[in-house]
Amino acid sequence: MLPGRGRDGRADKAARILGTRIAWTAVGDGQFFCPGCGGDRNYQRLTGRRRFTLLGVPVLRRGETGPAVECADCGRRYGTDVLDHPTTSRFSAMLRDAVHTVALAVLAAGSGPRARLALTAAAGAVRRAGFDDCTEDQLNALVEALEADTGRVYGAPCGPGLAIELHEALDPLAPHLAPAGREAILLQGARIALADGPYTPAEREVLATVGSALTLAADEVTRLLTAAGTPS
Q1: How many other β-carbons are positioned within 10 Å of the β-carbon of residue 39?
Q2: 77 to each of 57, 70, 80, how far by Cα in Å?
Q3: Tens-place pLDDT, residues 20-78
Q4: Other Cβ atoms within 10 Å of 75 Cβ, number
């Protein structure tokens, strides 16, 4: 049989005569984390229309196709759910704000005037998270302002206002952290609480709220807090 005369040859010929084509139109742009490039890139948001083609020429509309996100660098196209993943810069800011909020919450739960050791531990954690110029005095002033705003007193339980603050900072971050990363944030709070002595009931309640917002199971939170408070 001559080349191109079999069943496959006839299919190839038909495909060259009849086909479909998508005409893409840009409807927006921005920056996203490109899975293909492995970093932050610019993107275009696209909508498309399918058309039948005859000999490569569009002849009939076949309807619209779902929106897509196209990387400006590599040209790969993704579903719009790729935009749910934060950019590297946004992720860093979310992590920094989360550590800062946890540090303030733990300090506010202290049973008395904040010890310098706890403030030092908190400031160190916040600086490592990205607030390079954070000082103990700044944190102390922020906690005093928080207490004045919410009406909390030393050693009081984690009220609804503080719990909301923790969830607002941690809920968006938790899905993008590996289990070890979620545990690390909880343990940072634990080390701040332990810097000036054993956990107080209010500190344990704050840390339990942190664990819940980070989607850690209650028994896992208990295990981590116990391990952090056990001398090695």
Answers
A1: 11
A2: 24, 4, 9
A3: 666 678 888 999 999 999 999 999 999 877 665 555 555 556 656 778 999 999 999 99
A4: 8
Q: In what order do the strands lie in the sheet with 77-78?
A: 18-34, 39-54, 57-71, 77-78
Whole-Å CA distances, 92 to 24, 95, 99: 33, 5, 11
Residues 6+ apart with CB under 8 A from 83: 30, 32, 69
pTM over 0.85: no
Closest by CA to 149, choosing from 160, 138, 139, 161, is: 161
Task: Report whether 131 contacts 96 (CB < 8 A).
Answer: yes
Contact 125/178 with Cβ under 8 angstroms?
no
Is residue 50 within 8 Å of residue 62, measured between CB atoms? yes
Question: What residues contact residue 25 under an 8 Å CB cut-off, 6+ apart?
Answer: 46, 47, 48, 49
